[in-house]
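Give me the fold.
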Amino acid sequence: MTIFSPAGRMTRKIGLGLVGVVVLLAVLQIAEGAAGVNQALFPLPSAVLAQTWDLTSNGSFWSAVGTTLTAWGAAMLFIIVIAVPLGLILGSLPAVDSALTPIFEFLRPIPAVVIFPLVLLVAQDNTRAQVSVVVFSSLWPVLINTVYGLREVDPVAKQTLRSFGFGSLAVALRVSLPSAAPFIMTGIRIAASLAFIVTVAIEIVGTGYSGMGAYAAQSQASGGDITVLLAVAVWAGVIGLAVHGVFATVQRRGFRWHQALTATATEDS
């Protein structure tokens, strides 16, 4: 492996990122120590990192992480099941797309926290309400990328299949969906990170939850050290990065042909 290979470039990128984080934490540590700030409000990075490490042996915390990831996983399943077929319909039927796009553009900017009380009132169940709000707020990247991917499908390929007597459904499944798959995967990767953020946020603002957000909120409400809250935030960031990394790896390895095609098109232009 060389630094110019794809794996070498990735390793170098991760290494530089870690160096940047270490430098930032060192600067904050020195600056806070020199300024004599109130550490009850602004804990030293070393204290936050120590608390972050302590959470690795905290069973209650990992139980909360499992609860959060379970809700996130359920939401992601619904997002894919809803957004991909709906995107196929919108991308294949321009009339339906034109009729529904104004509605979607109206719904898309609505913040999740605004509709959460209403959804909770209707669902009468914390988990169902949480999953529903996460799905609503996070399905848009998958839906938009699916529609965009279908619009980028080679019309000659679709017409060729139609000339052999294949119907619209067969064309969509044999040509449109495989061609749009890289775009769909990009939408899923973006939605995964967004869904995780919303899942934790709902646990913070809601009542009766037992996930990461609720763990952080309860620790702070019980008069605990703010370092616990910041340590949970650190773990949320680490898990979010891991989620992004998993989906990015799947996309990179599963769609090498699309990356090669994109690189070729870029060179030709």
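The chain has two domains: 1-37, 43-268.
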